[in-house]
Each structure stands twice: as structure tokens, then as C-alpha cells.
Amino acid sequence: MKTIRASIIGFGAVGQGVAEVLLQKDENLKNIGLDIKVVAVADSKGAAIDPNGVDLSKVLIKKRTEGTVGSEKLTGLEVITNIDHELVIETTPTDIDTGGVGLPNMLAAFEHGRDVVTSNKGPLALKYRELAEIAKENGSNFKFEATVGGAMPIINLIRDVLAGNDIISIEGILNGTCNYILTRMMEEQASYEQMLAESQELGIAETDPTYDVEGIDAACKLVILANSIFDMDATYKNVDVTGITKITPESLMLAQDDGFVVKLIGEVKKDLIRVGPRLVPVGHPLAVGGTLNVASVQTDLAGTVTITGRGAGSIETASAIISDVISIYR
Q1: Tens of pLDDT along 232-262?
Q2: Distance (Å, rounded) from C-alpha 217 to C-alpha 244?
């Protein structure tokens, strides 16, 4: 049995999802020879520390009743630097302008020789190459399946299952909020504003939906794919971005009359990174509805491989994180 001491840095929806999945899958993990012992959990107000393993059930209850995980006045960065452990699970909020606290957290983890598994897009969209190089220099594993497509396994699919293929292009729907709004506009013949309001009521769209509806979230995911799969050195500024805010019910109906749906499609290949509304034939593999994500990977040997899955949700994102953890240590 291999014991891995881990920290969870950031304890919002995704961090809590990771804790829930670790509790739920503890026996399964032990069956494959892994004992994941969380020795520290940190949020923006404090930390819970126990070298013998914190009680994740109690930490979850404390977070939900008191708004913080613990009384130790340590930041995530201090936990990463000072607490002895092998794995940092970094789930702090995404900030694509500065990288947020996630960027120094990841750099510190690598400098201390720790492995990092993350769902945080911001640092990767800004400084992927620097992070990857520092991780390599320090012998650290760096995994980030959860940053693109939630539970939909695209990065590991390409790196592992499709290893040996040249990747020609990747295109797809990488934002479930936009896909939901466009799907509902078509179904109800309703305006963008009406369906945005509906998606906010249902908790699908954020109170401030700018990142999603302006295409910024999808663009960040394309940058991560461009850098990690195509070895580009791109940032958000290299993406040609158009969102969905100007789409009208009339344009959707005209498309439908011609046998098309309108989808926010992201595309990346060697010389191109773009995201914007496109006409997709009804019945095409990319014409998925609701909050689903989909990606088509065009390869030289395997042809086109298309995958669909849930692109958001705390448990779904935790699924990708746990998958990365297992792939490092099994």
C-alpha cells in the first residue's frame, strides 16, 4: 500500500467535491494500492492540519456551517511551503488576469518538489510553459485534466490513449453555460436575455456570466490545449474570441430552417486558436444540447475521435482530479 500525503488548497465547490469523492472512493483507492491521506485543507480564511490525516467529513461540515475549514491561521501558500506532503490538489478560483493565488501556490509546490493536480485554469492560461518547465526541473508531476472539459477526458485521452498519433486539430464545445443558453433559446424561441436569466436561476450561469458568455472561459481552455498538446506558447491574447451575447432567436430559427444549429465552437490547431458561434449540422457529433461539452480530436492514424461529457459540476470536476491522482501514483 502506497500512502500519499496530500493537501487540498481552495475549498469551494471543487475542493469540497474532491473531499467528498475521496471519502466515497476510499475503499476503491485502497483496492488499487493507494492510501490518499489529506494532511491539510486550506481555504481563504484558515486551514485544518493533521499529520495523521484530517477528518474530511468534519472539515466538510465545518465549512458548510461556519464558512471556513479550520482555525489555523495559515494561507494555502504557507501550507504548501511548511507542511510535509507529496501532493498539492490546487482548486482555488480561476483568475485569468493575474493567475490569482493559484500561480504562486503551484510555483511553491514545484520548488518544494511536490506534485500538483489542479482544476485552476488561470495559471495555465497565463504561464503554462514556465509552470511545466519548473515542474520538470524539480521532478514534480503536473496534471490538469480538470481544467478543460470537467469530467470529459480530453488531455489524458490525447496523451495516453492516442499516444503515437499526430494531432491535427481539436474542436468542440468547451463551455456548458453557453451551450445551455443556445439550446434553450432554440427550444423556446426566446431571447438571449431570457435564457441567461433562466440559467442563472438554475445555478448554471454565474451571477456575473461574462467569462462564459463572452467566450473567455472557452478561450482559456483552448490556450491550455494549444500549449499542452501542440507545444505552443500561447496566452488568452492569442485567441480570436467572439461570444454569444449578440445571437438572436431569429438567427437560430433561420439556421434551423436550413438544418443547422448554432453552437459556440472552439478550435485549435498549429496556426490557429479561435472561439465563436458556428453553424453545425443537426445530427453532427458536435451538435450536443444542454450543458454537455464535446470535443472532436482529428488525428493522423486514428482518424477523428469524438468524446462528450459533463463539462462542469463539483463531483464531475473531482472525477478528473482523482483520475489524475491515480495516474501519477498507481
Answers
A1: 999 988 999 999 999 999 999 999 999 999 9
A2: 12
Q: Do residues 170 and 267 touch, judged by C-beta distance below 8 A? A: yes
Collect all residues with Cβ–Cβ distance below 8 Å to 40 and sequence separation of at least 6. 7, 8, 47, 48, 49, 50, 54, 79, 83, 85
**Quick one: which of 147, 196, 202 has its CA closest to 174?**
147
- Four-residue CA torsion sign, 318, 265, 160, 99: negative
How many CA atoms within 13 Å lie on the side-chain side of 297?
A: 26
158-310 maps to which CATH number?
Answer: 3.30.360.10
pLDDT digits (tens, 9 = 90+) for 201-235: 998 988 899 999 999 999 999 999 999 999 999 99
Which cell goes with 188?
423556446
CA atoms of 322 and 330, how far apart (whole Å): 12
Question: How many CB atoms lie under 10 A from the CB of residue 300?
Answer: 10
Work out the burial of residue 68: count CB atoms within 10 Å of its CB; fewer than 13 is exposed, 13-18 middle, 19 or more buried.
Answer: middle
Position 311 pLDDT exceeds 90? no
Q: What is the DSSP string of 220-275?
A: HHHHHHHHHHS-----GGGSEE--STT--HHHHHHHHHTTEEEEEEEEEETTEEEE
Whether the Cβ atoms of residue 85 and residue 49 lie closer than 8 Å to each other: no
The burial of 303, by beta-carbon neighbours within 10 Å (0-12 exposed, 13-18 middle, 19 or more buried), is given as exposed
Spans of all domains in the chain: 2-148+314-329, 158-310
Instruction: Say if CB 219 and CB 241 are below 8 A apart.
Output: yes
> With 90 as the cut, is the pLDDT of residue 129 above it?
yes
C-beta separation of 311 from 180 below 8 A:
no
Cβ pair 22, 315 in contact under 8 A: no
Active site residues: 221
Residue 271: the pLDDT is 87
Considering the segment(s) 2-148+314-329 as one domain, its CATH architecture is 3-Layer(aba) Sandwich (3.40)
pTM: 0.94
- Integer CA distances (angstroms), 137 to 63, 95, 133, 215, 327, in order: 36, 25, 6, 34, 20
